[in-house]
Amino acid sequence: MGFLIAIGLIVVLILFWIASYNSLIKYRNLVEESWAQIDVQLKRRFDLIPNLVETVKGYAKHEQETLAKVVELRNQITAPGNSRQEQIEANNELSGALRQLFALREAYPDLKASNNFNILQEELSGTENKIAYARQLYNKTVMEYNTKIQSIPTNIVASVHNFTRRDMLEIPAEERENVKVQF
Predict the structure, then answer these.
(1) Which of 134, 112, 115 is nearest to 45 (CA)?
(2) Could you give the maximum distance between any two Cα atoms of the chain, in Å?
(3) How far from each other are the two terminal CA atoms of the chain, in whole angstroms?
(4) Is the pLDDT of residue 6 over 60?
(5) pTM above 0.85, yes or no
(6) Which residues, in sequence order, are CB contacts of 158 under 8 Å at separation 6+?
(7) Which terminus of the chain is more exposed, N or C, with fewer CB under 10 A?
(8) Quick check: 98 and 70 in contact, CB under 8 A?
(9) At 165, is the secondary structure helix, strand, or coil?
(10) What is the CA angle 45-48-50, rounded to 5?
(11) Confidence class for position 183, pLDDT limits 50, 70, 90
(12) φ, ψ at 153 (rounded to 5°)
């Protein structure tokens, strides 16, 4: 009888180990998939920027510095060997440069009236919203994954199979400041 109990206990432990391992694999893959969604939206924005820059060039010939910065930051994003964190930092800088670019439309009424510029601005605004949503999904998925690998008893399986904690995405400090509205 004791032998059957021991066999039953071993089978339960093996089944638990397999279920825990498969669950950890699932969450790790969800983290990777949610990162891929961010990457897709960043690529979309990357592809839209040259069209936007060319449209603005035609109207705002005196704003070469802003345009050059946007192009430079766009090129930094695709530099080989960049880590995820470096890509996110470059994209945050690019978001700031794009805000400056959109601010130009106030200085150039013809640009403001340009249908091409307005369409591109709407596309980029939509893409920025999709990027924000993809970042939220990534952080939610990372939080669930990190909780799973730190919780008892799956933390034992996670440590044996080298599942490591992932970092969440954070916004830059300057974007945390209060917005000043002046009339």
Answers:
(1) 134
(2) 89
(3) 84
(4) yes
(5) no
(6) 24, 148, 149, 150
(7) C
(8) yes
(9) coil
(10) 120
(11) very low
(12) -100, 0
- Kindly state the tokens that stand for 70: 């946007």
Q: What number of other Cβ atoms are within 10 A of residue 150's Cβ?
A: 13
Alpha-carbon span 18 to 24, nearest angstrom: 10
For the beta carbon of residue 62, count every other beta carbon within 10 angstroms. Answer: 9
What pLDDT score was predicted for residue 61? 63
Q: Domains of the chain: which residue ranges?
A: 27-134
Burial 71-105 (b: 16+ CB within 10 A, else e): eebbebbeeeeeeeeebbebbbbbbebbeebbebb
Joined tokens for residue 61: 């010939």
